[in-house]
């Protein structure tokens, strides 16, 4: 186990005192969330959960994650333009997963109509864990890539200052000074602002498509306010507003409440519960419009777990990124074992393996937002139940990444302070813009470190499991 901060970790009085100071710092810096009870007003807010101390991250893996981000941007972009690949890859999934099927249907429909907009804005976050493996030196392994509504760029931009303060209070000024500048919120805003500018209408606005329940609004406000600082107007609307009041003009420009929308930035729309019949209609309207969609529906599909699994198949990366062997090698190095559960011999074999050794694997449905994957005994039960039915193809199987745990304190409102054995997940934010055939922007714009107690298999800050953290490079 990593011994970072071991001189203070067990000094209970000191930890109590510093935790109180850390919470005040978080409130001052704006590391905030609305409460579960008052999720749509800011009268009562609390600090978003975070670690007391920054967690160790091997610098070589941190650099590797940054170095591969532009490759992931290229890859997602290539997939989103490859209708044949999406169709082929998702063919069996859409037979059994109604949500993916509905997204796919809209994708086909807009392709048939002809795309109204050739500008694409992609914002994604590629997530990794540090697999300890057998050899002992950790390896960077991708958990997944999020191509829609990737969150916490805002709050993470403010978390570093909290940890810097904590380290200073603890007399660790040298360590404090090494914490890196990190402002992905600015990077996201830069991408959105560029897409807005290329759309080319001064009076048009950026529309954040937001959820009915908006607990994580401060994270979004960080990006929003950066846009206002660049004189880009932002409005916030829900699917319901779009359904009731949005329309397209004769050249398919999107209007709502008398304003033209240049960019739709989705912070909603990634899970089935976000949709009813009217919301699907609203999605189709936006998708058919001339507004720049972040992401468009093809890019959302490119982020499915099924696509991730297909990418790990021999030859797939080479086909998607021809003549780009360096990118392919960098991408492949981050993959762990991913397996399809098709109705064939190979699928049967994997299911038998997973039932025999469930702790080696994670079983993943086509869902987002944390809390959907199956592990251990649950994984075994679901596979036993579905193994003879095509339903099994709605999942993919993945090797479980096994990071080395370390000790930290997870600070949460109304929770007692206790030391926990933890593991971390590093995310890198990528932003790119394509205009017709030209990639006019391709950047990595910052990182997010989330840490959770080892007793939780699944993650997610919004899901109430992981907390915000800052990497301390070792
Ligand atoms: P989601 O889209 O719901 O966030 P993820 O693939 O990120 O789905 O899985 C959710 C969480 O489950 C991750 O944050 C991580 O904590 C855990 N997890 C997912 N895949 C693996 C894996 N292969 N090995 C270990 N943990 C995993
Ligand atoms: Mg996800
Ligand atoms: Mg995830």
From TrEMBL:
Stretches of the chain forming a coiled coil according to its record: none
Residues engaged in binding Mg(2+): 144, 146, 368
Sites where the protein binds ATP: 144, 305, 364-373, 375, 398-401, 425, 452, 458
Cofactor note: Binds 1 Mg(2+) ion per subunit.
InterPro entries from the UniProt entry: Glutathione_synthase, Glutathione_synthase_a-hlx, Glutathione_synthase_C_euk, Glutathione_synthase_N_euk, GSH-S_sub-bd_sf, GSH_synth_subst-bd, PreATP-grasp_dom_sf
Cofactor(s) required for function per UniProt: Mg(2+)
Residue numbers binding substrate: 125, 148-151, 214-216, 220, 267-270, 450, 461-462
Catalyzed chemical reaction(s): gamma-L-glutamyl-(2S)-2-aminobutanoate + glycine + ATP = ophthalmate + ADP + phosphate + H(+); gamma-L-glutamyl-L-cysteine + glycine + ATP = glutathione + ADP + phosphate + H(+)
Subunit structure: Homodimer.
One example GO MF annotation: glutathione synthase activity
The keyword Phosphoprotein is assigned to this record: no
Taxonomic source organism: Alligator sinensis (Chinese alligator)
GO CC term, one of those recorded: cytosol
Name the record gives this protein: Glutathione synthetase
Family: Belongs to the eukaryotic GSH synthase family.
Pathway(s) where this gene product acts: Sulfur metabolism; glutathione biosynthesis; glutathione from L-cysteine and L-glutamate: step 2/2
Bilayer-spanning residue ranges: none
Gene of this entry: GSS
Annotated Glutathione synthase substrate-binding domain residues: 204-302
E.C. number: 6.3.2.3
Function (record text): Catalyzes the production of glutathione from gamma-glutamylcysteine and glycine in an ATP-dependent manner. Glutathione (gamma-glutamylcysteinylglycine, GSH) is the most abundant intracellular thiol in living aerobic cells and is required for numerous processes including the protection of cells against oxidative damage, amino acid transport, the detoxification of foreign compounds, the maintenance of protein sulfhydryl groups in a reduced state and acts as a cofactor for a number of enzymes. Participates in ophthalmate biosynthesis in hepatocytes.
Keyword Oxidoreductase among record annotations: no
UniProt cross-references to PANTHER family, sorted A to Z: GLUTATHIONE SYNTHETASE
Entry keywords, A to Z: ATP-binding, Glutathione biosynthesis, Ligase, Magnesium, Metal-binding, Nucleotide-binding
